[in-house]
Every structure is written in C-alpha cells, then in structure tokens.
C-alpha cells in the first residue's frame, strides 16, 4: 500500500497503526508543503491585519488631535517664560458689524481714548531681557547685543534684550489704524512719535513714515502667510437672497492677558525709548477681546 495519498492537489502521509504514539486520531496529517503554504498564508494575513490596525490607530489619533487641539505639541518656552499660560482657549471672533469697537473708533469721535486702549494692550511695551543661560532657546547670534549690569546699571541681569514679536505685530496694526485717512491728520496734529515731522525725512525715494508703514504691511503679510490659517468662513443666508460671510467663528487662542501679566513683571524699563514713555494708557488698563 502506498505511503502517500494524493487528494485534490494536496499530498498526505499515511498514518501508522493505532499503536504508533506519533499517530493522530485523524486519518491524515498535512505534508511539509501544505504546512509551508499555511504558514505563508498566516504571515500574509498577520501583516495585512497589522497594517489595517496601524492605519485605524493613526486616523483615530489625527481625529483626536483635531478635536482636542490642547493636546497638540506646544512650542518650547524658555524657563523664564514658564509662567505664561500657553494653553488654548476658545474665543469667538467678531461678526461683520455695521459699527466700530473701542479699538477702531474714529479719533474725531473719541480723541485719545482709542490710542489709550491700544496702549493698554502693550503695543509700546518695554523690551525684555533673555537670561544669558537661556539664549539657546532663541535664534541668538554673536551679532545680537549683550547686556551686562557692570557696563549698563539699568540691566536687571546679564542677557540679551529684545521685544516680543506679538507686541510688534499689534503695534503694526495700530500704526495702520493711525494712518487711515480719517485718523492721520489727528496724529500729525498731536505730533505723535509715529507721525511727527521727523517721520517726513527722506530715505532715498521714501519718507520714514512710508517706509515704516510698508514694513508693517509686509510683516503682517508674512505672518498671515506663515500661519496659513485653514479655518473656513462659511456663508450665511441674508435678506433678499443675499449671502454674507459668517466671521463670528470660534477659534482656539492663547491667553493675551497671561502674557501681559508676565510682561509687566519682566519688562526692562531702562530699555524703553523715550518717545514711548510719553504715550499714556489708562490708569486702570482696559482689555477686551471683542473691543466692545
């Protein structure tokens, strides 16, 4: 009797008698070829399942990150900035309103009040000093000015001075507000440091005020392009079939108030330029997200 039996393309070895301890209670056992085929199939299925599971986990993580933006990786802060609240909080932007806010009111209506509101936001804030042992957190080179209390008694400690970029951006927005056709003459008459006669000095083809304004426009343009905010502003149904954009949208934002508190504690008043010292805000600072 043959030792091997061929059935439907598979070859099986014949078992010994019932007294053979290596025998199975079933009639047939798979050959080595069939075992290799089963092993290959099992390996392929395992790899496919692993890939599917990994893909699902990645998609779940992405959805979690989008729906929970506070879980996303924060930018590293230097230790001397650690008290600033950098978590995200939901804020709702203003709708398109047929009105102005306390940050956009005309000078002809409110005079210096609108400028004081901007001053309270910290636009003329004094520089801060990065401690020397923390300059590694910033893009500091040997060309940047070092401070030393031994040579500059107003310096709080050895380090590198600088202005916070967010304050500079707000200064630029305010400069553009001041330069609007319905505000510019007011600030020229007031001899505001950004609009006095010193700003009429020519540098090549352009006055200093023109160069300053152009600089601010480019800074804000580059900021917007850098952030590339992908939020969607949908349309709303208006009267008479007219649609309008819904700007009253929520967004996750940092705490400006937390930053201002930190800045007031860290500001190096000795580094403030004299012109900015003479631009007052309110005795009790005004702050409003909406401006109302």
From TrEMBL:
The chain crosses the membrane at residues 40-61. It holds the Pfam family UstYa. Residues 1-31 are annotated as: Disordered. GO terms for biological process: mycotoxin biosynthetic process. Residues 1-12 have a biased composition (Polar residues). The keyword Transmembrane applies. It comes from the Eukaryota. The keyword Transmembrane applies. Keywords: Membrane, Transmembrane, Transmembrane helix. Belongs to the ustYa family. This is Uncharacterized protein. The lineage of its organism: Eukaryota, Fungi, Dikarya, Ascomycota, Pezizomycotina.
């Amino acid at each position: 009797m043959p030792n091997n039996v061929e059935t439907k393309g598979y070859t099986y070895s014949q078992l010994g008698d019932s007294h053979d301890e290596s025998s199975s209670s079933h009639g047939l056992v798979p050959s080595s070829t069939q075992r290799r085929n089963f092993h290959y199939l099992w390996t392929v299925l395992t790899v496919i399942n692993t890939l599917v599971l990994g893909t699902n986990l990645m998609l779940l993580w992405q959805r979690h990150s989008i729906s929970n933006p506070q879980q996303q990786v924060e930018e590293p802060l230097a230790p001397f900035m650690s008290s600033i609240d950098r978590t995200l909080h939901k804020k709702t932007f203003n709708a398109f309103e047929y009105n102005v806010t306390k940050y956009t009111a005309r000078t002809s209506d409110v005079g210096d009040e609108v400028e004081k509101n901007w001053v309270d936001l910290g636009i003329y804030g004094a520089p801060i000093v990065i401690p020397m042992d923390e300059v590694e957190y910033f893009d500091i080179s040997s060309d940047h000015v070092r401070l030393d209390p031994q040579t500059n008694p107003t310096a709080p400690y050895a380090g590198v001075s600088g202005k916070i970029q967010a304050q500079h951006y707000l200064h630029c927005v305010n400069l553009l507000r001041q330069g609007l056709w319905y505000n510019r003459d007011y600030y020229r008459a007031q001899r505001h440091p950004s609009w006095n006669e010193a700003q009429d000095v020519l540098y090549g083809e352009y006055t200093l005020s023109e160069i300053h304004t152009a600089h601010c426009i480019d800074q804000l343009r580059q900021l917007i392009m850098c952030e590339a905010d992908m939020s969607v502003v949908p349309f709303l149904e208006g009267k008479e079939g007219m649609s309008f954009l819904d700007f009253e949208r929520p967004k996750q934002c940092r705490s400006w108030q937390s930053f201002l508190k930190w800045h007031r504690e860290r500001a190096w008043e000795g580094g403030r330029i004299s012109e900015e010292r003479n631009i007052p805000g309110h005795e009790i600072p005004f702050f409003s997200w909406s401006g109302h």
